[in-house]
Amino acid sequence: KKLAVFVSGGGSNFKSLHEASLQGRIHGEVSVVVTDKPGCGGSEYANEKGIPVVCFPRRSSLPTALSPFDLITRLREFQVDFLLLAGFLKLVPVELVQAYPRSILNIHPSLLPSFGGKGYYGLKVHKAVIASGARYSGPTIHFVDEHFDTGRILAQRVVPVLAKDTPEELAARVLHEEHQLYVEVVEALCEERIVWRNDGVPLIRIKG
Ligand code: GRF
User: Fold this and answer.
1) Fold entry, domain 2-204
2) pLDDT digit string, tens, across residues 24-33
3) DSSP, res 61
4) ipTM of the predicted assembly exceeds 0.95
5) pLDDT value at residue 64
6) In the chain, N or C terminus with fewer CB closer than 10 Å?
7) 3-class DSSP state for residue 30?
8) Contact of 203 with 197, CB cutoff 8 Å
9) pLDDT tens-digit map of 80-95
10) For ligand 1, atom 8: residue with the closest CA
11) Residues with Cβ within 6 A of ligand 1?
């Protein structure tokens, strides 16, 4: 399978997915990286590894601005099967959601539907979790719809929130699980082990 990874930040999830693909654990390759922040860690890593980078969105004032349809055309040129959001901070345009049904995933660093939506990104998520007094947190992987963090939940992992946690400490504990969970889920995705229950809930079929 061919994968497009969308990044805006450090790209540690992208890196762990890329490594899992090189090791043959994921039966797929990262064919292209899409970013709204050309200088970010994720796009630098893609450059180092020789993976093509597409910038989206370009500033709409520029004559070279990329429309959602231009992006779809580029992704089709790369024959992409799945789109993986890994720390991509922009809302995915509805045209893209419609062009790739049941094929776009996002990872979010809280147990959705709690602590999700616009404004919940980066350390803000972990600060809010700690302030709420919740005893558990963890990453969620979900299919992407036209809103922030509301698509169907596919997988979650739980980590404890410790009494003395700083947002940074909690973020690190969650991120560690993110790397493992995303690889596991994309492994299943590429092996066509996602099944959809009649009520629209996606499930992962265990290997073997
Ligand atoms: C992760 O915590 C992810 O859940 C969130 O943004 C962060 C990205 O980290 N959506 P990285 O860029 O993969 O290191």
Assistant:
1) Rossmann fold (3.40.50)
2) 999 999 999 9
3) T
4) yes
5) 61
6) C
7) strand
8) yes
9) 999 999 999 999 999 9
10) 87
11) 9-14, 42, 86-87, 107-109, 139, 175, 178
